Amino acid sequence: MPALDSLFEALKFDHLAAPCDALLEQAAKKDLGYRELLAEALSCEWQGRQHKGAQVRLAQARLPWLKTLEPFDFSFQPSIDRKGVRELSALGFVGRAENVVLLGPPGVGKTHLAIGLAVKAAEVGHRVLLLTLEQLMGKLKRASQENRLERQLQQLTYPKVLILDEIGYLPLSRQDASLLFRLVARRYEKASLIVTSNKSFVDWGDIFSDAVLATAILERLLHPSTTINVKGESYRLKSKRKAGMLSAPATEEDGKAAAG
Ligand code: ADP
Ligand code: MG
């Protein structure tokens, strides 16, 4: 019979080799039966694989920073339906390929919530990707110029969760908006989008230079979807205000300062 270590290696049981002796020792102490010991050993390997898979998926997700939902301070942002976010974090929307739209002024935690949901999705095995609208348009335009738009659109359907961050800061030409429409249509009912925007839906016609295209994009984005409309103050400015660097209450100026 081959030695245990070479079996681990041949089977690629990378996460069991190191803790194996400790596991056996514990099993003897706890007087575990063979089946229980086997289950403990395999679950040790399984958990290791899950953890590593999540790390790889998160590394590929291009998140600008890593934050989970747990430290999010809901008491600071009472307009957010805490129960709704908890429900989203159970990821039913990913399974149903539904979208999430996060609206609100700069600094209120839209990207944080989007990243928190993406981290949860990566942990349970979904591919996730974050692109700002600017990054996405760069990709699509390059692909279009190089005659590989189809392939690029196809690639962008692979992540089960695609965060499109910061719709609204960058106005799009009609041509660009139609590229965005193709992406949204391609993912429609196949994979989820999480979209953040500082503009309310009525202003989307202006962002996309075309009311008909804006409506077509919105229709596919919103049905079916969950919209969270954050009506609050910038969290970034909270700490500055606390430190006495700002005195006025939240106004449009805050938005500009936080966006800059
Ligand atoms: P937005 O995308 O709406 O402009 P962000 O998600 O980038 O805002 O939030 C700005 C910063 O403030 C981030 O570091 C984020 O983690 C933090 N933040 C925002 N809202 C909260 C909150 N309610 N609780 C904890 N941190 C928050
Ligand atoms: Mg943001």
Which tags fit this structure?
260 residues; alpha/beta; Rossmann fold; 2 domains; five-stranded parallel β-sheet; 5 strands; 53% helix; disordered C terminus; binds adenosine-5'-diphosphate; binds magnesium ion
- Could you report the average pLDDT, rounded to the nearest whole number? 92
The secondary-structure element order is: HHHHHEHEHHEHEHHEHH
Helix/strand/pairing category = alpha/beta
Helix content: 40-55%
CATH class category name of the largest domain: Alpha Beta
Sheet-strand content, in percent, reads 5-15%
Domains (count): 2
User: Rounded to an integer, what's the Rg over CA atoms?
Assistant: 23 Å
Tell the overall outline. globular
Number of helix segments? Answer: 13
CATH topology of the largest domain: Rossmann fold
Spatially, the strands of the biggest sheet line up as: 2-3-4-1-5
Quickly give the CATH architecture of the largest domain.
3-Layer(aba) Sandwich
Fourth-level CATH superfamily of the largest domain: P-loop containing nucleotide triphosphate hydrolases
Largest sheet: 5 strands, parallel
Report on this model:
The protein has 260 residues and is α/β, with parallel strands linked by helices. The protein folds into two domains: 4-57, no CATH class; 82-239, 3-Layer(aba) Sandwich (Rossmann fold). Helices cover 53% and strands 11% of the residues. It contains 13 helices and five strands. It has a five-stranded parallel beta sheet. The radius of gyration is 23 Å and the shape is globular. Mean pLDDT is 92; it is low at 250-260. It binds adenosine-5'-diphosphate (ADP) and magnesium ion. Magnesium ion (MG) binds at residues 110-111, 165-166, 196.
